[in-house]
Design goal:
alpha+beta, Cytidine Deaminase, domain 2, four-stranded mixed β-sheet, 7 helices, 43% helix, binds guanine, zinc, metal-binding, hydrolase, Cytidine_deaminase-like, CMP_dCMP_dom
C-alpha cells in the first residue's frame, strides 16, 4: 500500500532538498571541506545542515551526516530525532547509517551512491563490503577479551532508577 512518502508531492519536495544537499557538498569543497553535505528536516522545515569537516576538525567521525545530526540535536534540544528526515548528498557510510539509526530519524534519502563515492576516491563502498561480508579480513582488528566483570556497567545502568534510556 502506498504511503504518504511515496506521493509525487513528497518526492518532488524531497528531490529539491536532495539538490540542496548536493549544492552544500559542492560548496564544502570550495570552503576546504570534504565533498559531502547533509540536512536534517522536520515537517519539511530545515532544522540543521552539516558538511564534511574531517580534515579541518582533525576528526574522522565528522562526516556530513554526523555533523548535521549533531547540530539538529543541539537545535532541537534532544538526542531523539524521531519525526525528522536525514537528507544527504551521498549514500551514508556504515558509520553514518549507525548514527541515523541511533538518532531515530524516520528516513534517509540521498543522491550519489557508494559507487560514485568510490570513484571520488572514498572508502564508502569498501566499508559497506566489510559489513556485508564480515569474513574477509578487516584493516582494523576487532576482538573480544574475556573478563568476568564485563557486564558490570550494564548491571549498574539497569539498577539506576533515574537513568535516561536512549
Ligand atoms: N556519505 C558520506 N560518505 C563519506 N565518505 C567520507 N566522508 C563522507 C561523508 O561525510 N558522508
Amino acid at each position: 500500500m502506498p504511503t504518504e512518502t511515496d506521493s509525487p508531492g513528497v518526492a518532488a519536495t524531497e528531490a529539491r532538498w536532495v539538490a540542496t544537499a548536493v549544492d552544500l557538498a559542492t560548496g564544502s569543497v570550495d570552503d576546504g571541506g570534504g565533498p559531502f553535505g547533509a540536512l536534517v528536516l522536520r515537517d519539511d522545515r530545515l532544522i540543521a545542515t552539516g558538511t564534511n569537516l574531517v580534515t579541518s576538525d582533525l576528526d574522522p567521525t565528522a562526516h556530513a551526516e554526523v555533523s548535521a545530526i549533531r547540530r539538529a540535536c543541539t537545535e532541537l534540544g534532544t538526542f531523539d530525532l524521531t519525526g525528522c528526515v536525514l537528507v544527504s548528498s551521498c549514500e551514508p557510510c556504515p558509520m553514518c547509517l549507525g548514527a541515523a539509526l541511533w538518532s531515530r530519524v524516520d528516513r534517509v534519502v540521498y543522491a550519489a551512491d557508494r559507487e560514485d563515492a568510490a570513484r571520488g576516491g572514498f572508502d564508502d563502498r569498501a566499508f559497506h563490503d566489510l559489513f556485508r561480508n564480515p569474513d574477509q579480513p578487516w584493516p582494523t582488528a576487532v576482538r573480544q577479551v574475556e573478563l568476568t566483570e564485563r557486564t558490570a556497567p550494564f548491571d549498574r545502568w539497569l539498577a539506576k532508577p533515574d537513568r535516561v534510556d536512549y
